[in-house]
């Protein structure tokens, strides 16, 4: 067991907890729009020999999909907890790459603006949902996330689901509600050159790339599908149907080239479809192409 103190990732989202050099796709999936990023806090964490890891912490409290600010503007705290099981981690069998768990956060938030309420984005990083300006976070926020992955040989599969419930209010209009936004994704990968897939990516290519040599590194093909859904009760009292979508769903295809253990080139194409809120016009599909070194 160890204690961590400072600014670090809140233990909730499975993909958000991956190192940025290990994620299969360049941009994170829809569940990560509901998971907090890095925040200031203190955490007890550890792992038992049976393959059970745990984390329990108290944080300032970050909005969905964002890092927390460097202060605690409302003086409220958020508690986060995570249990993750890898019961066959040290066994040489087909289940050694299976991991599954559940994580949750809960705490109060009181305030207005992006430090308290989320602004959800597309895979192309375009904002497609926000609350209207007079809406406040006004009470309890609770998130829960069942999550799992399986890596066997050259194949990998990662899945997660997050629901984020937030008490909101517009005092000037005397309206309040508890809204539930939800997101899920499935991400599959296959290493075309035969190396083992893992939560940490392709750790070591069998034949690293060398100039004028036989090595070309490792190639990994990635596919993802997911969806983010906004609570119907958000419209029209808390969000403007003409400016915010009610849902987004989309797929991503990617190719990862691990030239060496320390150098990776990535190319992704994603296409996203939007559901309009009642009475609003349909938004054009987003088509985005990203590369990263």
Question: In a few lines, what is going on in this structure?
Answer:
The chain contains no helices and 14 strands. The chain is mainly β and 293 residues long.
Give the integer mean of the pLDDT values. Answer: 95
**Could you tell me how far the N terminus lies from the C terminus, measured between alpha carbons in angstroms?**
35 Å
Helical content (DSSP H or I, runs of 4+): under 10%
Work out the helix count: 0
How many runs of DSSP E, i.e. beta strands? 14
Structural class assignment: mainly beta
Widest sheet: strand ordering: 1-2-3-4-5-8-9-10-11-12-13-14
Q: Could you say which overall geometry the principal axes of the C-alpha atoms support?
A: globular
* Helix-strand pattern: EEEEEEEEEEEEEE
Range of strand content: over 45%
- Mind summarizing the main beta sheet? 12 strands, antiparallel
Could you name the ranges where pLDDT drops below 50 across 5 or more consecutive residues? none
Q: Using only CA atoms, what is the Rg?
A: 20 Å
What does this protein structure show overall?
This protein is mainly β. The protein contains no helices and 14 strands. A 12-stranded antiparallel sheet has the order 1-2-3-4-5-8-9-10-11-12-13-14, with no helix packed on it. A hairpin with a 4-residue loop joins strand 9 (155-170) and strand 10. It is globular and about 70 Å long. The two termini are 35 Å apart. The mean pLDDT is 95.
Q: Which features would summarize this protein structure in a list?
A:
293 residues; two-stranded antiparallel ribbon
């Amino acid at each position: 067991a160890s204690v961590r103190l400072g600014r670090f990732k809140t233990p909730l989202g499975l993909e958000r907890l991956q190192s940025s050099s290990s994620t299969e796709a360049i941009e994170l999936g829809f569940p990560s729009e509901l998971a907090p990023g890095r925040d200031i806090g203190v955490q007890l964490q550890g792992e038992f020999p049976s393959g059970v890891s745990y984390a329990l912490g108290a944080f300032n409290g970050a909005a969905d999909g964002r890092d927390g600010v460097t202060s605690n503007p409302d003086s409220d705290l958020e508690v986060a907890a995570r249990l993750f099981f890898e019961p066959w981690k040290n066994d040489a069998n087909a289940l050694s790459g299976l991991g599954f768990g559940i994580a949750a956060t809960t705490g109060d938030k009181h305030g207005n603006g992006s430090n308290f309420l989320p602004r959800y984005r597309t895979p192309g990083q375009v904002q497609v949902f926000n609350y209207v300006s007079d809406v406040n976070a006004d009470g309890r926020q609770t998130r829960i996330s069942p999550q799992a992955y399986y890596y066997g040989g050259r194949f990998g599969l990662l899945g997660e689901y997050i629901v984020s419930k937030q008490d909101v209010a517009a005092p000037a209009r005397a309206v309040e509600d508890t809204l539930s936004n939800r997101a899920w994704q499935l991400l599959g990968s296959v290493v075309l050159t035969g190396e083992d897939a893992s939560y940490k990516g392709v750790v070591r290519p069998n034949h690293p790339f060398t100039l004028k040599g036989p090595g070309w590194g490792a190639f990994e093909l990635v596919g993802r599908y997911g969806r983010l859904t906004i609570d119907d009760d958000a419209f029209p009292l808390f969000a403007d149907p003409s400016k915010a979508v009610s849902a987004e769903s989309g797929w991503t295809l990617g190719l990862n080239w691990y030239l060496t253990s320390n150098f990776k080139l990535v190319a992704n194409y994603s296409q996203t479809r939007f559901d309009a809120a009642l009475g609003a016009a349909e938004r054009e599909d987003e088509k985005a192409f990203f590369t990263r070194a």
